[in-house]
Amino acid sequence: MLPNEIYNNLKTEFGDAIIEYNDAQPTDPFILISTGMLFDICHTLRDNEEFLFDYLMSLSGMDLGENVGVVYHLYSMKYKHKLVLKVVAPKTDPKVPSVEMIWRSADWHEREAYDLMGVIFEGHHNMIRILCPYDWEGFPLRKDYKVPEIYRGMKVS
Amino acid sequence: MSDKKRLDLEYSTHDSDKMRINVGPQHPSTHGVLRLEVEVDGEIVSEVIPHMGYLHRSFEKVCESMTYPQIIPYIDRIDYISAMNNEWPYVMALEKMMDIKVPEKVEYIRVIAAELNRIANHQIAVATFGMDAGAFTPFLYFFRDREYILWIFEKLSGARLLYNYFRVGGVSGDIYPTFKDECLDVIKKVRKTNAEVMDLLIYNRIFIQRTAKIGILPADVALSYACSGPVFRGSGVKYDLRKDETYSIYDRFDFDIPVGKGEVGVKGDCWDRNIVRMHEMEQSCKIIEQALAQMPMEGDVTAAFPKKIRPPKGEIYMRAEGPKGDLGFYIVSNGSDKPERVKARGTSFVNLSVIPEISKGYMFADLILILGSIDIVLGEVDR
Amino acid sequence: MLSDFGIILLYFILGAVFVGIALVAAAIVRPSHPNKVKNSTYECGEIPIGDTWVRFNARFYVIALIFLLFDVEVVFLLPWAIVFKGLGWFAFIEMVVFVVILMAGLAYVWGKGDLEWERPKPQIPRLEDLIIGKKKQ
Amino acid sequence: MGLLNRLDDPYEGGGILMGTVEDLLNWGRSKSDYYLHFGLACCAIEFMAMNASHFDFMRFGTIPRTSPRQADFIMITGTVTFKMADRIKILYEQMAEPKYVISVGSCSNCGGPYFEHGYHVLKGVDRIIPVDVYIPGCPPRPEAFHEGMIQLQKKINEQSIFNKRKKLKAELKKNNLISK
User: Which residues of chain B does C50 touch, with a Cβ-Cβ cutoff of 8 Å?
Assistant: First the structure.
């Protein structure tokens, strides 16, 4: 099932929660959705008979200048088709609903996105850092991140 | 909050007859620097909390200030046991973005190199798994055979472990004249050792009693945790990117996908994951033989090198079947020669997230075996 | 001349002297730079948190008691075994009675189930309790 | 009996060895020191390949020990990150004297490929623990491990027990009266 057909189905079902569909050529076609209905959209994507996206390949945080994005790469075992979802949240309050109860693989990916990019996933049962030490300040992968001078007495750079 | 504060908070709440053991960063059987915080009731594991990040080498931050070809050595260091298989999805992604058609001979060299690297990786996986169960001889047998493969790679690319051999549009060096019969010779040796280890370790009564029926991972839980590779196929699911999403020239070879069938224990236990790796080695040998037979000998491997590597503005997600599972790269390019973002989806990072679920209720010694059967590499977990 | 017990005392003293020399010489010669971190318990590289005084499971205590019981029995058997040839039938029957009484004790403990060691009870993960269920169409 | 009358014949010495107590001690310590069994990153795989039968690191009399209490030297094989740095410091402190450190690979020598942009990588393990031997390479070949081990043995052989002798030896070496 091609991404634009999925887009039309979702558009009919969720209306304006689906913001836009972009398939400029070299990029994989992706669907931009708003953060409000993210949980329900993902729930239908997983359980609806035409989609059956039961395999969340990867979830990555993005730094888009003044706001923060999260990209979901979905894959369906049965129909062998793929989908890319994007969600954008302002950097002032980077809150995105967590989908760890839909695909368990999102659990650690969301913690990593929080750890490196600073995206806070509401509803996540254990929202702490996963890669950096627990008392590391700042979110390293942001473009405006300044590397600290000293960390626990050791010179960093 | 700091490590200590977090633990004190938890420590005060848990009932006190359970002991909290720390299988810490420095431990012979954590396959690297992984810390498992294990809550043990007597000798039965009741809860496992993995702590990672001890080898977080800021790969994604490094990639943002390196040009595209400079990133390839860093990609070798993600999963440093199977470097050839790491480079392949990255290079394929860039070739797809800049739609470069790679000559036939390069495709065959890439398949052979990747399959040889898959054998080397499975040799280490089964060797360390045997060592976790206490068998030291297979470790020595497998490492002796791995040396033969490393010598081939050394002649091919100049390095033993981290090759930097794949390039965008080809490979860095052509094959040396005696490449073909050296590969065939290695395959003969690998098959002989595999047969030996089959009855020395795999069908050994003690090993079966130690590894069967522990660490049972049902197929639907593995699917929800997005596991892949031998961990997923051990639970009986026939999912392999070389067949489901055939990239490069894998459709020209006939090989089958070994799947865990619960031969000695339950389907999806540690023994199944291990036997899948052993059979996969045999399949890789078959692929290499067919690839060597069909390989065109003439053709310049550096024919399709682009003048300058500047992929158009856009993003792409490409994945390939590595020995541990599907390793994917999400590359966002802004038209310049440096990527805006490269995210590596590490298979070990995803496969490891299953540990807290599948190690509840087993003896403490079995936990070490369950960790060994998942076959993780910490460079890929922490990136 | 020294009585038999004198020889045993001599052995005892010689043993103590040899062990003493070895330990004291080592203590004098070896380098020793104790510091706080070196004296802390080795915890795979982590900082040990919490005290080690943990309430152990009761079954270890029961096993220790049973072991002590049969260890003492063996201590009684040893001297008897050396001289029982000279003592004739009476000593033999007495010792058999002694062993039978202890066997009864073992049977009681076995019956009561104190020797049962814990079996692993694997909890295989089920998907239902990990993620939310199917969406109603 | 004239045990010593063949003293001038170099090969007929009658099996008598002369030497100072230090030589005996250093010979014992350098030929059989145990290392702490723990690997960080890619160098750990070369470390395993070197431990296996082909390169056989045990020819130097080394045995992998899992606890720092029984280890004589520690091999830092791989990238030292900040989260791992405190742990390595604790492990080094918990080792018994006399202890040595071999830093393997350019990651632990100076930060290696992660020197410029690795925010989480410690730029060289010698910032937290004193290092005796550096082995260059990324990852170094197993033969380089052997070379590093030989350097460590050479260093142990020159050690002396009492400070007076240390000063004397250093002085002789300064105006190179004895070999380096």
Answer: 7, 11, 20
> What confidence tens digit (pLDDT) does each residue in C89-137 have?
888 999 999 999 999 999 998 898 888 877 888 888 888 888 887 776 5
Report the alpha-carbon angle D58-B31-B124, nearest 5: 70
C50, C121, C125 member nearest B11 (Cβ): C50
CATH superfamily of B59-382: Cytochrome-c3 Hydrogenase, chain B (1.10.645.10)
Q: Cβ(A68)–Cβ(A35) under 8 Å?
A: no
Residues 10-49 of A with CB under 8 A from C: 43-44, 46-48
pLDDT tens sequence across D1-30: 666 666 666 666 566 677 888 888 899 989
Q: Judged by CB atoms within 8 Å, which residues 43-62 of B form the interface with D?
A: 53-58, 61-62
Average pLDDT over residues B231-246: 91
Neighbours of B82 (CB within 10 A): 27
Domain tally, chain A: 1
Pair B119, B282: CB distance under 8 Å: no
Interface of D with B in 52-71 (CB under 8 A): 52-54, 64, 66, 68
Enumerate the CATH 1.10.645.10 domain ranges in chain B, comma separated: 59-382
Interface contacts A/B by beta carbons within 8 Å: 89
Closest residue in D to A134 (Cα–Cα): D83
Rounded Cα distance between B286 and D97, Å, is 54
CA gap B24, B33 in Å, rounded: 8
Contact residues on chain D for C32, CB-CB shorter than 8 A: 97
The closest alpha carbon to B54, from D85, D103, C48, A141, belongs to: D85
Contact check, Cβ <8 Å, A132/B53: yes
Closest chain B CA to residue A113:
B343
Local confidence pLDDT in tens for the 157 residues of chain A: 788 888 888 888 888 888 888 887 777 888 888 888 899 889 988 888 888 899 999 999 999 888 999 999 999 988 888 899 999 999 998 999 999 999 999 999 999 999 999 999 999 988 999 999 988 888 999 988 888 888 888 888 7
Please tell me the distance from the alpha carbon of residue D130 to that of residue D100, in angstroms, as a whole number.
Answer: 8
Interface membership of A133 toward D (CB under 8 Å): yes
In chain A the first and final C-alpha atoms are separated, in Å, by 49
Q: What is the pLDDT of residue D3?
A: 63
Helices (H), chain B: 3-13, 59-63, 68-76, 83-97, 104-132, 137-157, 179-197, 205-211, 219-224, 230-233, 241-244, 270-294, 347-352, 355-358, 364-374, 378-382
Per-residue burial over D44-69, b if 16 or more Cβ lie within 10 Å, else e, is: bbbbbbbbbeebebeebebebbeebe
Q: How far is D114 from chain B (nearest CA, A)?
A: 7
Domain assignment of residue A88, given as a range: 3-155
D117: closest chain A residue by CA? A157
